[in-house]
Design brief:
With about 400 residues, this protein is of the alpha+beta class. The protein has 13 helices and five strands. The protein has helices at about 1-15, 20-40, 55-70, 75-85, 85-90, 95-110, 110-125, 130, 140-225, 230-255, 275-285, 305-325, 360-375; strands spanning about 290-295, 330-335, 340-345, 375-385, 385-395. GO terms for molecular function: kinase activity.
Length: about 400
């Protein structure tokens, strides 16, 4: 069985039709038919009186051999080129087969082998005119025509090779462009998801901190000797309900943006500096004391700069509610020709030292990345008994 399989693989490899496409089938059939037709036309003893009658059977046999060898020129161009040197030199009917072999060497074989074997074909074919002169053709014409025929066949093959290499190069370049495009697309989608995640972290952290503050205040009043009256209880519950509903809406928006099919949805309108009033009102409704002062001119700032400044203030208020619930917060926005400076500060609770201040969380890390992407600088830490956050953003115009 192993021997049978081995011989079958050898037969498949030696088959002239192995790996041939439909277009290659048509081309080889036409070339084979052309070689037989030219051989049949040229196999005329009366046209070549110098050729002895005893040689014509051999001439025709070599012509048939060279015509049949066309079927193997794709798989073995160098071997067939070597095989047809002698038939092409001594047989009139083998002319087309030899020229096709030279053409296929230019198309498929290593260039140095194609040039070498073509030269051998020419040198071997030139002496034929001395043995059997072609009627009506002088030596000068023979010395010009024979090299030109072989050179033309070789050049056509080399042009076909160049065309194939160009097509392959264009396909490879297109594949590389597609890979680069897909990589850029994946990077863009990842960056956009990270941006959305930072946005939603800021929004949800703000709302949940408001919920925590209201719920803590309500729990404290409920345990005190003077529990809240129904109206106060209703107002507190309403604030908690509104913020909880807002958190659910924000979470629904996040799930809508990050759909399971991998595509990014349409982003909701992003906050600007003009939305700071609503943010401060929410903080005041939660019982947070905010001292706010601003000389910023939003109409002269880019939207991304306004968004970054808004998130800085939002994160500062959220952190103050989490780590210093009763401390007042100071917010200052100052704009000059070069930059917009956002400064927030709140007193550190009594008994808290610099070493007790927690390390930067995801919120502050995200803020720092956002500010640096905008081309600004960011710092946060304890200074003179206060937790201070300073963001400097370039005041580029729209």
């Amino acid at each position: 069985m192993a021997t049978s399989a081995t011989w079958r693989r050898v037969a498949e490899r030696l088959s002239p039709a192995a790996g041939r496409t439909r277009g290659e089938w048509v081309t080889d059939c036409l070339l084979f038919a052309l070689a037989l037709l030219v051989g049949w036309v040229t196999a005329s003893p009366s046209a070549y009186p110098e050729v002895g009658g005893w040689w014509w059977p051999w001439d025709i046999a070599l012509g048939v051999l060279s015509s049949a060898a066309i079927w193997w020129t794709r798989r073995y161009p160098v071997a067939v080129g070597v095989l047809l040197i002698v038939p092409g030199a001594v047989s009139i009917t083998a002319m087309v087969g030899a020229l096709v072999a030279v053409y296929r060497m230019g198309l498929l074989a290593p260039i140095r082998w194609a040039l070498l074997l073509t030269t051998l074909h020419v040198l071997a074919a030139l002496p034929y005119h001395a043995v059997a002169p072609v009627p009506g053709m002088t030596w000068l014409v023979w010395l010009i025509v024979v090299p030109l025929m072989y050179a033309l066949s070789l050049c056509i093959g080399l042009l076909g090779r160049a065309r194939r290499q160009l097509i392959v190069g264009l396909r490879e370049e297109a594949a590389r462009d597609r890979e680069r495009y897909e990589e850029r697309l994946a990077t863009t989608q990842r960056d956009e998801r990270e941006r959305i995640a930072r946005e939603m972290h800021d929004v949800l952290a703000h709302r949940i901190s408001l919920l925590s503050m209201h719920a803590g205040a309500l729990e404290y009043r409920a345990r005190s000797p003077h529990p809240p009256d129904p109206i106060e209880l209703q107002e507190s519950a309403g604030v908690i309900r509104q913020n909880a509903q807002g958190a659910v809406e924000d979470l629904r928006e996040l799930l809508g943006l990050l759909r399971s099919d991998g595509e990014l949805g349409a982003a909701a309108p992003q906050p600007r500096l003009t939305d700071l009033d609503r943010l401060l009102d929410d903080a005041a409704a939660a019982g947070q004391h905010v001292d706010f002062d601003s000389d910023a001119r939003p109409e002269r700032l880019r939207e991304t700069t306004q968004r970054a400044a808004y998130r800085v203030v939002q994160e500062a208020l959220t952190n103050a509610r989490k780590h210093a619930p009763a401390a007042p917060v100071t917010v200052r926005l100052h704009q000059d020709r070069a930059q917009l400076t956002v400064t927030t500060s709140n007193p550190v609770p009594p008994g808290i030292t610099r070493g007790d201040v927690p390390a930067q969380g995801n919120g502050l890390i995200g803020l720092e990345e956002r500010v640096r992407i905008e081309g600004g600088s960011f710092r946060a830490g304890v200074e003179d008994g206060e937790f201070r956050l300073v963001a400097e953003l370039p005041a580029g115009t729209r």
